[in-house]
Specification:
218 residues, Rossmann fold, 2 domains, two-stranded antiparallel sheet, binds zinc ion
Length: 218
């Protein structure tokens, strides 16, 4: 009965696909129609053993086209219901190192930004990934300092310098650190943020830090 009501409501007030802007009549397809979802092209990239960044890195796609639109909607239009869909795309061509990862850490946001947006998309993505992988999510371990300026307007060198001093850690010392963690964020640009976060986690005693983002903006 309830699904019937929802269906009638959807037919009367159809929502539009985020990508092609066509009306979506099938309630299960919201917020992206099945045609657009199946035609999203991914371009996965995996790097292992490059110590200049992290111990291993995966991204599902370049930051352009539909992926860019989806992530933009996710970030700036409060579309936090896109989490599940984005994780589907993320792991379409990737087994996220389930066997070797002991836990997941989202890249923290500046607190004023998170308060402004109402959520940190990296935390939502980490929780969804953790739920599917059945791995713990440590969203309190890394902290972005209050005064850390936005990375957006900085040059690459300034970003690296800024990132190095922008993070600290907070973790109970009662138990030993996990051996391998997966650091997650929505987009990587220079890698300065991931490198700085990995550095902090290693200072806590974590041996291997792998990182994954949905997109790379090179
Ligand atoms: Zn569409």
């Amino acid at each position: 009965m309830i699904s019937l009501i929802i269906k009638s409501f959807t037919i009367l007030f159809p929502s539009t696909c985020l990508l092609c802007r066509q009306d979506i009549l099938n309630v299960e397809e919201k917020p992206v129609c099945s045609f657009c979802l199946s035609s999203v092209e991914l371009d996965p990239e995996t790097k292992r053993g490059d110590p200049s960044l992290v111990d291993g890195y995966f991204s599902a796609a370049a930051f352009k086209g539909p992926i860019r639109e989806l992530l933009h909607a996710y970030k700036y239009q409060g579309k936090d219901y896109l989490t599940s869909l984005l994780v589907d795309l993320w792991i379409r061509n990737w087994d996220p190192w389930f066997a070797e990862v002991d836990g997941i850490v989202p890249v923290p946001m500046a607190r004023w930004k998170e308060m402004n947006r109402g959520y940190n998309q990296a935390v939502l993505l980490a929780r969804e990934m953790g739920r599917r992988m059945r791995k713990p999510v440590y969203s309190q371990w890394l902290i972005r300092k209050w005064r850390s300026p936005s990375q957006t307007a900085l040059t690459r060198e300034e970003r690296l310098q800024n990132a190095r001093t922008s993070f600290s850690t907070r973790r109970s010392k009662r138990r030993g650190p996990p051996k391998t963690l997966l650091l997650v964020d929505d987009v990587v640009t220079t890698g300065a943020t991931l490198t700085a976060c990995a550095h902090q986690l290693k200072r806590m005693g974590v041996q291997t830090v792998l990182a994954a983002t949905i997109a790379r903006d090179a």
